[in-house]
Amino acid sequence: MKRSAKCFNYKNRLFNSIKKNKISITFLIMLVLFASIITYLRILVQIEIGPISDSFDFLSNALVYAGQGMGYSDLLRPPVFGFLISLIFRMGYISTNVVFYMDGFLFVLGVIGLYLLLKIRFNNIESFFGALLYTTFPIVITVLGVGFSDLASVSFTIWGFYFVVLAVNNNSKYFYLSFSLFMVAFLTRYNNALLIFPILLYLVINRDKLNFKRLFTGLGVSFLIIIPVLIFFFQKYGNMIYPFINFGSSSVISSTSAESFAYNSNVFFFIQNFPSLIGPQGIFIMIIIIFGVILLGLVKLMKRNLKHFNGINIDMNDRVNQIRLIILSLFLIIFLVTFGKIFYMITEILFFSMAFLLYGLLRNLNIKSFDIHLMFFGWFMAFFIFNSIYVIKDLRYFVLMAPPVAYFMILGLSEISNRVPIQFKNRNLIFPILTVILVSIILISTASQIPEILNSNNDKVKLNNEIIQSGQWFMNYDPNYKNQSIYSDLGPNYSWYLQTDVKSVPVFKDNQTFANGVKNETFNQADSEQFNNFLITNNADYYICLREGLNLTSYTVIKQMGEVTIYKKIT
Question: pLDDT digit string (tens) for 72-89?
Answer without folding.
Answer: 989 999 999 999 999 999
